[in-house]
Amino acid sequence: MDLTRFAPLAVVLGAVAVATNPVFVRLSELTSVASAAHRMIWALPVFALWFWLSRPKAAVRPPSSGKHVTLLLLFCGLLFAFDLVSLHASIERTAAANSMLFVNAQPIYGVIGSWLLFGTRVTRHFGFGVAIALVGGVLVAWQSLDIGTEHLIGDGLGVFAGILYAGYILGASRLRGRLSSAEINLWTCLIAAPILVLVTLASGHSLIPATAHGWGLMIALGVISQGLGQGLIVWGLAHLPTSFSSVALLTAPVAAAVFAWLFLDESLTSIQIVGMATVLVGIYVAWRAAPVASNKKPL
Fold it and tell me: Are 109 and 163 in contact (CB under 8 A)?
């Protein structure tokens, strides 16, 4: 049976699973950083199982492809750790849909990063898409300013999380030729988890939920949002054109808005809806015109 025909469904379901992240963070008994640590910790068994199934005779060991690969893995793990710190802090301060919207604008951040770091040419159509997304971002942020400066800070943290995630994707895409997706995801968790644990403990906060319900939320955060969500996305991306995948991943902010409405009693104003729709259109236009090579897929 050819499972690759289910790749589009896998990416969409993965994006929906990732969109549950704000619900678990908001309902958590722990701080946002402690929740991020749990997300990495409980995703480890999922990625370890994936790694074992894909390479059943191989032991989990540090990559032997040279110092460059090891440093790049450390770089990716560090970026992902602080991406989660920023994203979870954003979720605590602004609407869940806003956080997921700005972090999922990473296709734009990624191309801008490629232009700044590697001199990749940027087309007029890409600039047009960025302009559309900026207009939408202003609408969303303006609405947040009307609600309060805390919401505006949350939006800014969401943008910063998207920039960090774009950096992670740029780094991880350069590992694809030497390491499998399972290895990259497993090592990202192995590196990010202790960093987040240390940051939590250094800030004087607890890593131990007070109730069984709290433990359940943290396990679900790691298994569903990171393990299942990221796993389905990575598997689907390996079998799909990047142009389709980038559009399919825009399911995440829409799903986050629905989950926030169902479980967090959040509602969206008409201005926020228009602003979000405008940002999504801008991301789509920019990505269609993106000069990044088509084999560079988010991991």
Answer: yes
Residue whose tokens read 């979000």: 276
pTM of the model: 0.82
> Residue 208: which region, alpha, beta or left (left: phi > 0; alpha: psi -120 to 50)?
beta
Evaluate whether 297 touches 245 at the Cβ level (below 8 Å). yes
Residues constituting the chain: 299
- Are the CB atoms for 275 and 137 separated by under 8 Å? yes
What mean pLDDT is predicted for residues 246-261?
80
Q: Which residue from 210, 207, 224 is spatially nearest to 24, judged by alpha carbons?
A: 224
Tokens of 269: 């104003």
d(CA 75, CA 39): 19
Treating both helix axes as pointing N-terminal to C-terminal, what angle do 7-18 and 251-263 enclose, rounded to 10 degrees? Answer: 40
Contact indicator for 23, 264 with CB cutoff of 8 Å: yes
CB 299 within 8 A of CB 14: no
Domain spans, the chain: 3-288
Most confident region among 118-132, 206-220, 269-283 by mean pLDDT: 206-220
Percent of residues, the chain, with pLDDT higher than 70: 83
Q: What whole-number distance in Å separates Cα of residue 125 and Cα of residue 157?
A: 27
Q: Give the span between the Cα atoms of 259 and 82, in whole angstroms.
A: 24
Other CB atoms within a 10 A radius of the CB of residue 148 amount to 12
The yes-or-no verdict on residue 128 having pLDDT over 50 is yes
Distance CA 179, CA 15 (A): 23
